[in-house]
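Why do we care about 3D structure at all? Because function follows from shape, and shape follows, mostly, from sequence. That is the central idea of this module. The next example makes it concrete: a single protein chain, its amino acid sequence, and then its structure expressed as tokens.
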Amino acid sequence: MTSFFGVYDGHGGAEIASYCAKRFHIELCNHEDYGNNLSNAMRSVFYSMDEDLQLSDAWRELVTPCNNGWMYFIKAGVCANLSPFPQATYTAPSYEGSTACVVVIRGDQLIVGHAGDSRCVLSRNGQASALSVDHKPDSESERERVQNAGVAVGHSYRKIMGRWVTKKQWGFTDFKGRVSISRSIGDFACKKNERLPPEDQMLTCNPDILTMDITDDMEFLVIATEGLWCNMTNQNVVDHTHDRLLEGAEARVICEELVQFGLPSGDNTTVILVLFKPGAYPAVPLVDTDTDTDSHTSDDVDPTGSNNATASDNNDPANEVDPTANAGSDDSNTGDEVKVDATATAVGSSSTTAVAADEGTGNPPHGALVDTDDEDGLTYS
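And the structure:
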């Protein structure tokens, strides 16, 4: 069985986050390495999503209502009245982009891929362990790449009530603080250095990939956008979730509570909670706890305390099920213990609503609340 979870935090607009939510998992399932090298497939999809956005505006059709009468009228008018004139050259989104934090669970393995500052945190016996490291320009490893690309790093800014206000985060001073992360999908104004390959650009879509074994002491995952982590530490989030689960609270309710904790940050917040089934595998002694996500690279994060956090190259395609199946499903192949017990999702400050549906039924997965706001996207299957 394969389960997929992902959050996408947009900036400069909602379209790219929405596109990622609709397309990322499909691209992953269609990749040639999906069956035998999932980590390689995941890395490739980060790049292919970026390339799709850069080549043409075909991607916008996925995030624009196709049955919109006005859209049909506009397209018809363009074809009828403007066809004799040269078509405008497509310009990739300059300052619009999205983070991506995706998790795939297959058999006894968990694979995390991320670019940006959305975060995945594991609870093991009540102790928080970061499975991703925030990509900020001020972190040591990221700053070196940014400066090698010839870009200065300084405080970033946010426009509030018509005024630019300095944030604690750092950003690219050359771009007036419009981008405060150092990896994302999109943001092509920050990827224009023709002398450098994509992975060495000042802002890159190159993800960190972490693969680890699932063990019996793993309790749950919290995957969330920056809004939550601005107000709560990894351990705070795990403590609250752990306490509420002991009290019998539903995963859906806990997600909604965590979203409320993220509201004071002023950022839209998306939270996914993934609960593991106990008793599948022996526990691994815990070494790593709540990590400082601004001071490490992905190679420094070994949440198992062992050496099994390496690229996955031994996934068995025989364990596959329909990639659109519900993440919390109990379906499995003979002898393959299902690791996911339940999932729930919540999003704050929603102005639009979308449902990540089982494509076979047209219905949302059981127990899942899926709302999307102006800039956050999410998907799971």
